[in-house]
What does this fold into?
Amino acid sequence: MAALSGGGSLSIRHAGKIYDPEGSNIVALQDVSLETAAGEFCVVVGPSGCGKTTLLNSIAGFDQLTSGEIRIDNEMISSPGKQLQPGADRMVVFQHGALFPWKTVLWNVSCGPIRQGRLQRHEAEAQSRELLARVGLNGIENQFPGSLSGGMKRRVEIVRALINNPKILLLDEPFRALDALTKSVVQEFLLELYDLAPKTVFFITHDVEEAVFLADKIVVMTTRPGRVLKTVVVDLPRPRDYHILTSPRFLEIEREVRASIEAEARKAFEAGERELA
Ligand code: ADP
Ligand code: MG
It folds into this structure.
């Protein structure tokens, strides 16, 4: 499908981020390096406040690094002093979404490529309908976002991001607010779109089961200052569906990731307690 061609490689080298260096001096990221191959599904997990959103915002071009660099297909995207340049090559899906409530689903999904002049209206609308149907949403084109359930909105937002044909799809805890059943349905639809044409995905969650289900590679971050604690390769076959959740290999990887993230969360808790004492 033309709307879903392959993704770009992501290279993060020695990324550091300090908020308010003159004042509270919060070190959010410290020497973070990671490489994601084109088309790889990379999931980042880590305790709350460890810098995951900061890292995603730096890739998206919303936030500036204080050291290090980020490249996509070897092109410099972010480094200290470089002007912020968010672009359609990096589309972001947020936890709380960003659909225009007064516009129809079809308008919301098709507006990006039309506005960029990349597609004619009829082409953009045809692709929108096709992608919406892929995620089980045919027939909702003329509805307004307010009439959709949370799970439907998330699917519309993912389709809206993908139709821009980004090199990288960035998702910041997109399914956090969904109930367990809805979440599993939306995860499967995301994997279906991914399997159609693997695209580089940078996905943040602190749900370990979600991470293992989706990822090719899981990056576990430490408590703040956020560093890479370990990288776990998820060698489970694709396509994946929910049967895989109970396979021995799935459970083994899940245990490994959970053990490291829980050790980090405990450290954060203990550090917090000392601060209070
Ligand atoms: P996560 O997404 O892993 O929960 P964040 O990247 O949101 O973590 O935040 C990392 C750390 O940086 C936290 O301690 C947070 O309070 C701090 N932080 C985030 N944004 C800002 C900001 N704009 N100014 C100051 N501190 C910030
Ligand atoms: Mg966050």
Notes: The chain is about 35% helix and 20% strand.
